[in-house]
Amino acid sequence: MNNGIKLSEKNKKRAVWKFSFIGANNLNYGTLMGTGYAWAVADPLREIYKNDEDYQKAMRMEHEYFNITPYMGPLVIGADLAMQEKEGLESLNAVRSIKTSLMGPLSGIGDSLLWVLYPTIMGSIAGYMALDGNPLGAIIWMLLNLTLILLRLKLFEIGYNSGVRLITDLSDKLSAITEGASVMGLTVVGSLIATVVRVKSPIEFKFGEVVLNLQTGIFDKILPALLPVTLTGIVYYLMEKRKWGFLRVILTIVVFSLIGSYFKVLGA
């Protein structure tokens, strides 16, 4: 028990910023984010543990394996520091368990909502506005990303003020939230195929005075986005089944597009 110890606001905020901007990107094959996480909480833990041996024990535990969506990391850091501020070394096993048990569920929510859903929907809206020459699209995108940065401080406060109680109360709902977000994200991505992926063919067939355009006369009659869907399926096959990297896929599409445009097989 650490009676009378109260972490300074400066060190608590510093832990959030250190993890968010550097610690979450400090990866290795042994502990993944473990090193960055330990570095982020080093200063507030030093406030808690004045004795070197106690401090080393806590830091060894913090240096263990850790991996999470960076946006969600501050929530775990908040609960971690709150527990150690209250219970000291007696909380280390509980903190280890909390870190281990929350990595998966919180990453599921973070990946679905913030890695996939947010950039897909909001990035598309901002991109369309930019394509129309509206600078408000870029401004909105920057403001939203700034909001996400400030969100990390709020998540830390939630974890710190509520400790483990709030997180454990929501644990049974995390899987449902993750699944729902995944379905929504896939739906949005699917709809973008027809609106964002643009593949057309200018090929025309002439029978006397009758002209039949391959795109408008055949493809659009069968499925308006037939070529975009076909291209998306090919890209998925190459990346998922053939294990092509995204750079190889992009270069292949560029080369194929240039050849198709030169021979007037593809184009507007």
Automatic annotation (TrEMBL):
Swiss-Prot/TrEMBL keywords: Membrane, Transmembrane, Transmembrane helix
Biological processes per GO annotation: phosphoenolpyruvate-dependent sugar phosphotransferase system
Annotated Gene Ontology cellular component terms: plasma membrane
Transmembrane region(s): 112-130, 136-153, 174-197, 222-239, 246-263
Superkingdom of origin: Bacteria
Coiled-coil ranges (or none): none
UniProt xrefs under Pfam families: EIID-AGA
Stated name of the protein: PTS fructose transporter subunit IID
Lineage per the UniProt record: Bacteria, Fusobacteriati, Fusobacteriota, Fusobacteriia, Fusobacteriales
